[in-house]
Amino acid sequence: MTDRRLLETAADAMENSYTPYSRDKKGAAIECADGSVFTGCIIENVTLGATICAEAAAIAAAVSAGHRSFKRIAVISEGNTYNLPCGNCRQLLSEFSPQVEVLCARSSDGRYVSYSLGALLPMPLATSE
Questions:
Q1: Can you give the pLDDT at residue 129?
Q2: pLDDT value, residue 128
């Protein structure tokens, strides 16, 4: 799957966002080692702490289907900024695939940037393995 197609899949997921508080839609698509793809969108909650990030939703969908090794994750949000995964989502990705590539796009013009997870989270917490 190309970067562009993975980002388009994330953009499709973004349309299902539930964001009554921030009004900032966000979608994610994670590509597993076997090529399968799972999506997620942000699901806000008035308590904020119960909000589910798009990345976490995509990871949860993949893990729930039995996948634990990821190649790339694409994240897209509305507006003119690149919305990077939060610290919790970076650590969650590190739990399964510390070498994952992170694509971040802005929906306003479709441009995107690419990072290694190691660049975004240089010192992750130790895992059980």
A1: 56
A2: 59
Structure confidence at residue 81 (pLDDT): 87
β-strand 70-77 against 101-106: which pairing, if any? Answer: parallel
Question: Does residue 102 contact residue 116 with C-beta atoms inside 8 Å?
Answer: yes
Of 8, 55, 101, 129, which residue is the catalytic one?
55
Edge-to-edge strands, sheet with 101-106:
37-41, 26-32, 70-77, 101-106, 112-116
Mean pLDDT of the chain: 95
DSSP string of 20-72, one letter each residue: TTT---EEEEEEETTS-EEEEE-B--TTSTT-B-HHHHHHHHHHHTT---EEE
48: phi > 0 → left, psi -120 to 50 → alpha, else beta; which? left
Helix, strand, coil percentages (3-state) for the chain, rounded to 5, are: 30, 25, 45
Residues of the chain with pLDDT under 70: 127-129
User: Rounded to whole angstroms, how far apart are CA atoms 53 and 35?
Assistant: 22
55 a catalytic residue: yes
What is d(CA 28, CA 102) in angstroms, rounded to the nearest whole number?
Answer: 10
